[in-house]
Amino acid sequence: MKIVILDAYSVTQGDLDWSLLRTACPDADISVYDRTAPAEVMARCADADVVLTNKVVLSADIMRQMPRLKYVGVLATGYNVVDIDAARALGICVTNIPSYSTMSVAQMVFAHILNVTNSVAHYAARRSQWPSSADFMWMDTPLTELAGKSIGIYGLGAIGSAVMHIALAFGMNVLAVTSKDRDSLPAGVTPLSLEEMLPQADFITLHCPLTASTRAIINAETLRAMRPTAVLINTGRGPLVDEQAVADALSQNRLGAYCTDVLSTEPPRPDNPLLTAPRCYITPHIAWATHEARERLIKIATHNITAFMEHRPVNCVS
Known about the structure:
alpha/beta; globular
């Protein structure tokens, strides 16, 4: 059996490897590529039985040219890089990696929130100014306590629910846009529609999948409904927001801050308006990438393959 990993470095990052997979599949011919350009896919995968990909696209046309392909493992939770309908028609099993980074992403949400409310990066970068202070302490920005503030969570899946529990631990009021019944939610959580939540929330964090109905869910209209001091956090997908509308709202002081780990195009184009917008805090799609989460991803990816080989596939999305 030939296994090809198309963009391994996105997962290993130099501090992990695929030895677990090699141990689990000792007889397999495993080819590991750090990165694969679109033009290189066919040459590397033409005779592959199993292909693992994170962001390399496997279209219907590409998969039709792989006569031995039986299995595609997406090294992420989202699987839009694979044409699922075509895979199903071709009898190719496609799996994903669910819930491997839940706590890591929730942690990043609050890393962004605390950076805004406590100005951690600001003060760390200006530590040389403290010795010249006339007082025992020195501050030049307002600091905000989270207890009693309202956080709007759009989507209470695994990550949204983790964010909910952390917010409750901080003493925040949680306003949730969710299909879950009120009776199933913890005390301190109020289910609302998006329209009801927007004007009430001090913080808004997006935890919904990117679909036709959620694309640009934050746009010029919804931004106008938000408090001008609100902090918007996006660790989901870049296109959940209209980036130009967000940049305009920041420039016009109609939004307190935008904290994002994702952009519409990654890496971003130099003309992305968010790169120069004020009070815009961007991390380069790393919320999922803690050592622990990436190690967990490799374990689940290996289990997915061995389960498929034993004719009991798990985490199938095709």
